[in-house]
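Example 348, ligand S-adenosylmethionine.
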Amino acid sequence: MNEYVKEVNPMSEKAIKDHFGRTLKDLRISVIDKCNFRCSYCMPKEIFGDDYPFLPESELLSFEEITRLAKSFAELGVEKIRITGGEPLLRKNLDQLIMELNKIPGIHDIALTTNGIFLPRKAKKLKEAGLKRVNISLDAIDDEVFKAINGKGVVTLPVLKGIEAAQKAGLKVKINMVVKKGMNDNQILPMARYFKGKDIILRYIEFMDVGNHNGWDMDNVISKKQIIDQINEEMPLEPADENYYGEVASRYRYIDGDGEIGVISSVTESFCGTCTRIRLSADGKLYTCLFASSGYDIRRELREGLTEEQLKENLASLWHQRKDRYSDERTEQISKNKKKIEMSYIGG
Ligand code: SAM
Ligand code: SF4
Ligand code: SF4
């Protein structure tokens, strides 16, 4: 069975392992399913219209419930937390949640993925609460291309202001750019040129078949190789070592020393063998894979009053049973037509 695992993290003593020997290290928490954008590859506006049934507030996990779960996960070896959504900055008082998560022993890294629009108002408070890093999504530097993608006609300026505010607040910033053929592949070079030398890592993400509504087709995927070749031709690159075990992005440095880029190649070079992530949806379902069809209802158990000990036992048992390796299977062409959760619901 362990032949499948490329390398097992030798680190933590607390580490619990799944069926394939992968340790649990990262918890991704979606705090809301709503979003102020309608990105065509994530929440296409034709489907996520005005009458879309988003979760009512009573169904969202409270900050107390999230913190309780995070504490339990930390006791099982989780060290990193990423807050996501929907658009996580639409959740009221998010800084208070971050402050609570920051107090948990064992959690040494809290990050956030956002579309950046609300950062000018919120970056400082988030940083003060203990946030270390933000990944800001920006799929184009050209206004017309960006307007068409985000489905709300928003130009790039408010996102660029969000990036500036995050940097000013002392947060480390990375940019996420999903690349889809015909949507924004003409932005690969302009984005690289724009962010080169700005102390910001731009990460290109291969368009993924998440959810059931984004019209994914392998023909629309621009591969890591195509991205790197294109940039390398104009701005020569060399590969760099991974920063830590299980890093999802392959790193490349500009040879002239002017920074680096990353590529997340979940489609053409999948990395399930080192996947140490569990995901918590805004309504309290746990998913051991981004491409899972169903989640484990931990909210029900929390609200039914399970003890700390039972909680830890149930979380550990969920991880022990984990056999997910969807992207590797995709590569092997054996998982076609499976119904999956939406990206806007689980948060990437
Ligand atoms: N709203 C926030 C944002 O856009 O950063 C957080 C949630 S969003 C679902 C998290 C990340 O998933 C974003 O960087 C987004 O670009 C990425 N994403 C969404 N759908 C995707 C897809 N089909 N393929 C690849 N990445 C996707
Ligand atoms: Fe919203 Fe982020 Fe999805 Fe875009 S990618 S629709 S900003 S959740
Ligand atoms: Fe992890 Fe699932 Fe993605 Fe593989 S497909 S890397 S198991 S989330």
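Summary: The domain at 26-346 is CATH 3.20.20.70 (TIM Barrel).
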